[in-house]
Structures are given as C-alpha cells and as structure tokens.
Design goal:
alpha+beta, eight-stranded mixed β-sheet, four-stranded antiparallel β-sheet, 10 helices, 17 strands, rod-shaped, signal, transmembrane signaling receptor activity, transmembrane, glycoprotein, Neurotransmitter_ion_chnl_CS
Length: 505
C-alpha cells in the first residue's frame, strides 16, 4: 500500500468518524453500525454499514467538505450503430457507458483489508452518489436489459467507483444532403453534466482508448470512415434552460463524433444505371421514320413516365429541404434529355408533313436549320441571289398551272408546271417567253448554276451560283441521323461533368 493510498484511507476514516459524530450528536437515537472486523460481514451487510445514512449522504458530492473538483472519467464501447432513413435525421446507438470517479467516503481498506472489490447492480446504485449526465442531442434513450436493467457498479478498496450501464439511444444528427447519395455525414453523441457546473464536476475521457468499437460492428447503408473524441465546456443560462434548473454557468461536456460515408452501390444499381438505360431507350425513336407518330409518341411518353416513377421512389426517403441535392440534378438532367427527344420528334414530324421543297445555299447544319425554321427568309435570300447573279433580268414572275388531283406523281403538288415571263431591257426589243416545270427551274438554279429553259437565246447565270434543294422528308431524315450522334455525345458530356462534381468537389 503506497503512502498516498494510506493518507487517503486515513482521511476517509476521519471523515466517516466526523460525519458519524455529527449525526449522532444531532440525533442521539441514531446509532451508526460499526465497521470493525468488516471481513466477517457479507458484501451486502458490509455495504449497508458503509453507506449507512448516518455516515453517508448520497445526495452530496464526494468532495462536498473539501470543495475540490470531482473528476469523472468516461469511456464507451459501441456495439451497434444504425443510421436511420435520411428523412428522420437521426441514428440509433447501442453502447456500454463507463464512468469512473473516486469517493473517499467509500474507502474500506482499513475496515475490510481482505475484501478486494464490492460489486453490485441497481440496488448498490441506489445507495451511493452517481453523477447525473444527459445527452443533449437525445431523441429517446433507455437502459437495456431483460429481467433487470444492465447496470453494474464496482467499488475498490481506495474508494474508486466504476459505474457501467448498457444503453440504447436515438440521437439527432443534422445531415447535409447536398451531395446525396454521395454524401458523408458527421454525427455525434454529446454528454453533459446536468446538475453541477464545471467548477464542481469535470468530465474527462479516459486517456487510453476512450471509445472502442465492437469487432462485430457492421453497417449496411454506411461505412465508418473515422471517429474521435473531445472535451469542452458549454454555457448554460436561464434563457435557453440548457441545464437542470436553468442555472447559469459553465458546464463540462464530452463529445464522441464519428464520420459515416454512404455506400452508393445500392443507388447505382437501383437508380443511376436504370435511369441511364431509360434515357438511352428514348433515343430509339431516332431510328424510326419521322411519320411513325404512334410508336414514337408511345416510346417517348413511356420512358418519361418510367423515369419519373423510378425517381419518385427515391425521393420518398429524403426530407424536404430548401437546397438542391445531387440526386435532383441528375433527375433534372435525365428528364431534360428524355423531353428533348420528344421535342425532336415533334420537330421532325412537322417538317415531314410539309409539301414544299426547301432551297438551300449549302447542305450543312446552318443552312438546313435556317431554311427549315424560317422558310420565307430562305426564299427571299434565293430571290436576292438570283437577281444578283442576273443583273440584266429586271423582273420575273411565275404562275402555276392547275394542280392535277388525279396525278400519280408521289411527290404531290410540289411537281407543278410553271409559266415564266422574263422582261429584258428595252434595248433588246424582243421579250422571251419560256415554259418549264418547277422542278426544271429549281434544278437549273442549283448544282452547276445553270437554268434549263426552252429558249436558245436565254442568258445563263454565272457559274458561282450553288443553290440546291432538299425535300422535307430528306431534311427530317437528316435531323434524325444527326440526333443519333448528338444526343449520346451530350449525355456522355453531362455524365463527365456530373461525376466530376460528385467525386472531385
């Protein structure tokens, strides 16, 4: 036995004798049971004598006479962590909490030197002083146990008390879901003193391994990335009623924090990969003919409804927050691609049903889209080009012949005959009248830049004229072919930007 332990035991005996004398003097009828020959008593009998109310008051701090700070050392053993659904913003924890402090009033080395330890459960807890701690972020908690609560208290000969209890608690965890489902969440368990401020009671983590994880701990939706502990002092006052009684002051607090990373395998297999396949299915319409309205509309609407149903099943598990989440960005992007495929069909179907041949300066995207979207402007440019290429031509007028409704020409009314009258300068004195079909006129204006006519004396336009024509059906097919390449490239670009944002930012 060391000198420090001996002095502690002597001091505890003095305190016990002093308290016993005080209580006996105040109440002569109260006689404290003797502690002599303590080894002859059973554990229950000896503890009832040691913690008798004549010499021990469980409502007072162990150092109430000296005024020293009571140091309570804490440690935890985590059995189970169950992060709840994101919309609940909490997690469930099963753990063993151990508190260790020294109560000199319970030192019994001088009375029962052969007794190495006193061990009891809830009945012993009712006899001695125990620090009152609470979890500030607690939603609900309870002691675990079947027939009786899992509480264990051991008292060492020098008065060191080890209090263990097995608990389950549901604690709030304020999650940030901006990167859901690629997010990392940081949750904590906050232990604070309920009654005594930091000048009287100080909470401290054990020096070696204050928090230990069970080797059988397994998480389903998350993986445990890291955990750490820290000690702090919190401010309590009457306004926020943080501590018991609403008393102001600084209160000691302990914090155990762990970082969880969400497993994305479930979301990849059940949400992202199926949504990619649905978007790719919407591109099948580009391989169908532009006038196949029924199959293209059915395919477009079914892919849109399928994707909305898939996304809504994921949204049900999330809280309604004011900021946009990463999953919602993916939803908006995929919805935009599916909707764009529907718009593309409406566009090419409208072009397909046109009957007029489109005149083009060049066969490229710029002039095709320009002539398709603004056909009147394209015709004006054609007329302007013709006038610039034939400066001696002052006026040209065309009159269509009657449409033959019984014509078997599959091209329809676009192939009509026209009568063209050209007025030349008065110096020539002779007007020239030529008859030609509309197709001959267009063919003469395109390609080689020559106009096919019925007069040998007609002037040929300059060679630089390169106008050509495309039927509406050719333009619709041309747009579909370009969409087969453009849409997948844009979707791949969207994926590159999205996954870079998710994993790199």
């Amino acid at each position: 036995m060391t000198t420090k332990t001996l002095l502690t035991n002597v001091l505890s005996v003095f305190i016990v004798c002093y308290v016993s004398g005080q209580k006996t003097s105040q109440n002569p009828a109260l006689v404290c049971p003797s502690l002599d020959n303590g080894d002859s008593y059973t554990q229950s009998e000896f503890m009832s004598r040691l913690a008798n109310e004549c010499r021990y008051d469980r409502l007072l701090l162990p150092t109430y006479q000296t005024g020293e700070v009571v140091y309570v050392h804490a440690s935890a053993y985590i059995y189970f962590i169950q992060p709840a659904e994101a919309h609940d913003l909490n997690f469930k924890l099963h753990f063993l909490l151990q508190l260790r402090w020294t109560d000199a009033r319970l030192a019994y080395a001088l009375y029962s030197p052969e007794r190495t330890k006193i061990i009891g459960e809830n009945d012993l807890r009712q006899r001695i002083w125990v620090p009152h701690l609470y979890m500030s972020n607690e939603q609900s908690s309870s002691l675990m146990g079947t027939d009786s609560k899992d509480v264990l208290i051991s008292v060492a000969p020098d008065g060191e008390v080890l209090f263990s209890r097995r608990m389950q608690a549901v604690l709030y965890c304020w999650m940030n879901l901006q990167k859901f489902p690629f997010d990392d969440q940081t949750c904590s368990m906050n232990l604070e003193s309920w009654k005594y401020n930091a000048s009287i009671l100080r909470l401290m983590w054990e020096r070696d391994n204050p928090v230990r994880m069970s080797s059988e701990l397994h998480l389903t939706e998350y993986s445990l990335l890291d955990y750490w502990t820290n000690e702090s002092v919190v401010r309590g006052d009457i306004v926020d009623m943080r501590q018991g009684g609403g008393r102001s002051g600084n209160y000691s607090a302990l914090k155990f924090t762990f970082k969880l990373g969400r497993e994305v395998g479930y979301y990849l297999m059940d949400y992202f990969i199926p949504s990619m396949m649905i978007v790719a299915m919407s591109w099948v319409t580009f391989w169908l003919q532009a006038d196949a309205s029924a199959p293209r509309i059915t395919l477009g609407t079914s892919t849109m409804l399928s994707f909305i149903t898939l996304a809504s099943s994921q949204a049900k598990t999330l809280p309604k927050v004011s900021y946009i989440k990463a999953s919602e960005i993916w939803f908006l992007g995929c919805t935009g691609f599916i909707f764009s495929a529907l718009v593309e069909f409406a566009f090419v179907n409208t072009i397909w049903r046109r009957k007029k041949v489109v005149s083009l300066k060049k066969v490229n995207s710029k002039y095709i889209l320009k002539s398709t979207l603004t056909p009147r402007l394209a015709r004006k440019e054609l007329q302007k080009e013709l006038k610039e290429s034939s400066p001696h031509l002052s006026k040209s007028r065309s009159c269509s012949s009657l449409h033959q409704e019984t014509s078997s020409d599959p091209a329809g009314p676009g192939y009509n005959n026209y009568l063209t009258v050209h007025s030349f300068p008065s110096a020539l004195n002779l007007p020239t009248i030529t008859t030609q079909s509309y197709d001959e006129l267009i063919a003469g204006q395109g390609g080689n830049g020559q106009r096919s006519g019925g007069s040998e004396g007609s002037d040929e336009p300059p060679k630089h004229h390169t106008w050509t024509t495309m039927t509406p059906q050719e333009i619709a097919t041309w747009i579909d072919k370009r969409s087969r390449i453009l849409f997948p490239l844009l979707f791949v670009s969207f994926n590159i930007v999205y996954w870079t944002f998710v994993y790199c930012l």
